[in-house]
Design brief:
This protein is α+β, with helices and mostly antiparallel strands. It has eleven helices and 19 strands. It has one domain: FAD/NAD(P)-binding domain (3-Layer(bba) Sandwich), CATH 3.50.50.60. Strands 1, 2, 8, 9, 10, 11, 18 and 19 form an eight-stranded mixed β-sheet that branches. Strands 5, 6, 12, 13, 14, 15, 16 and 17 form an eight-stranded mixed β-sheet that branches. Strands 3-7-4 form a three-stranded antiparallel β-sheet. The chain is globular and about 65 Å long. It starts with a strand and ends in a 5-residue tail after the last helix.
């Protein structure tokens, strides 16, 4: 049995859902293929909901997209926290280095907004229920063909989905990307991101804080609603194993050594402690193939030190929607020239973010004293150059420099 649609999106994450909403609101018929069943709404309970360990720093460009999709206002606003400033500190003993950004200098309401994974996905799922042009299917894709006329995805149960355009939004281990034969550049960082949530003794005042160290990796604390913070510690493998094996109270004490002057002592927000996931750089050699476009982690995986992974994915969605909308009446949605326009538009931004995050990770992973002194002096230097700071802020906020 074959079903026909304009767009077939494979992937059940926030990026794929956002793309489905965008195309549907533009009048396209969309099939969203989930590898797992669509989540149901959380049960109503009087008990307070725990805070997610996975959070995202949504930049203004991503927020604007979610607003156009009528998703932003559907979020639980009581659990969305604006980032009003960011402070980055180095690790040299004599001269640690310091770099500061704030929303006033950026001429924005905030540098970013911290949103939990469940909050974002629940709002997207709710919006999809009212999207008349979207059909959500549960199933497993087994093969894919793309030709001049259309693309066809064959399912494990024998069903077929024919579409003008197939969108791969299925993550770093993308099945869609593998079917196209696109090669990838892959490099593990030898680090794990250790994530946990804490309460803080002093108010965080909407400031995101980050410490770059050679010996212990990169420690970031993101503000959550109330006097709470979310930890993302990009730690070397051996240290990550220790952190993940320690008690929640001991981890809080260890992180407090970095932030006690600004946040006071930390205490665990959940008794379950921390979780971790491996870090790597992944860069496909192309993000399009005949009748196929890749978005989100299927198109790029970067180090989380800049908090820009999800924002890059939403920028992919925005660019793909624009490329398809501007195709004209003579071309269908999967036309090679439409996909070439999408690839050109995303090439520079993705490359710059790869270079920036990979370069910073390499720079601060080197535990050599002269280099440590130089890079910390560099933080101070950038902090004193308003033009360069504005360029960095502009890129991080999703705008053209």
């Amino acid at each position: 049995m074959q079903s026909n649609c304009d767009i077939c999106i494979i992937g059940n994450g926030a990026i794929g859902k956002a793309a489905a909403l965008g195309f549907a609101q533009a009048g396209a018929s969309v099939t969203l293929l989930d590898a797992i069943a669509a989540p149901t709404a959380p049960a109503t309970t009087t008990a307070p909901r725990q805070w997610d360990l996975r959070v995202y720093a949504i930049n203004p460009l991503a927020r604007a997209l979610l607003t156009r999709l009528r998703v932003w206002d559907a979020l639980d606003a009581s659990r969305v926290t604006p980032v009003d400033a960011m402070v980055v500190e180095g690790d040299a003993a004599a001269r640690p280095g310091r770099l500061e950004f704030d929303s006033y200098a950026a001429r924005s309401d905030a540098l970013a907004w911290i949103v939990e994974d469940s909050n974002l996905n629940h709002a997207l799922d709710s919006a999809l229920k009212f999207a008349v042009n979207v059909r959500r299917m549960q199933g497993t894709a087994s093969s894919m063909q793309s030709g001049q006329a259309d693309g066809v995805v064959t399912l494990a149960d024998g069903g077929r989905i024919a579409a003008e355009l197939i969108v791969g939004a299925d993550g770093a281990q993308s099945w869609v990307r593998a079917q196209t034969g696109i090669d990838i550049d892959y490099r593990p960082y030898g680090q794990r991101a250790v994530v946990a949530n804490f309460t803080c003794e002093k108010p965080h005042r909407g400031i995101a804080r980050q410490w770059f160290t050679a010996a212990e990796g990169i420690v970031a604390l993101l503000p959550l609603a109330g006097e709470r913070v979310s930890l993302v510690w990009s730690a070397p493998q051996a240290l990550a194993a220790v952190l993940l094996d320690t008690s929640a109270e001991a981890l809080a004490a260890r992180v407090s050594a970095y932030c006690q002057a600004s946040l006071g002592m930390l205490a665990p927000l959940e008794a379950s402690g921390a979780k971790g996931f491996a870090l790597a750089m992944l860069r496909p050699q192309a993000i399009t193939a005949p009748r196929v476009a890749l978005i989100g982690d299927a198109a790029h995986v970067i180090h989380p030190l800049a908090g820009q992974g999800m924002n890059l994915g939403f920028a992919d969605v925005d660019a793909l929607l624009q490329a398809v909308a501007g195709r004209g009446t003579q071309r269908d949605r999967g036309d090679a020239r439409v996909l070439a326009r999408y690839a050109r538009q995303r090439k520079e931004s993705i490359l710059l973010m790869h270079l920036a995050t990979d370069g910073l990770q390499r720079l601060f992973a080197a535990d050599i004293e002269p280099l440590r002194i130089a890079r910390n002096i560099g933080l101070d230097l950038v902090n004193r150059l308003p033009f360069l700071k504005r360029q960095l802020i502009t890129q991080a906020m999703g705008n053209k420099a």
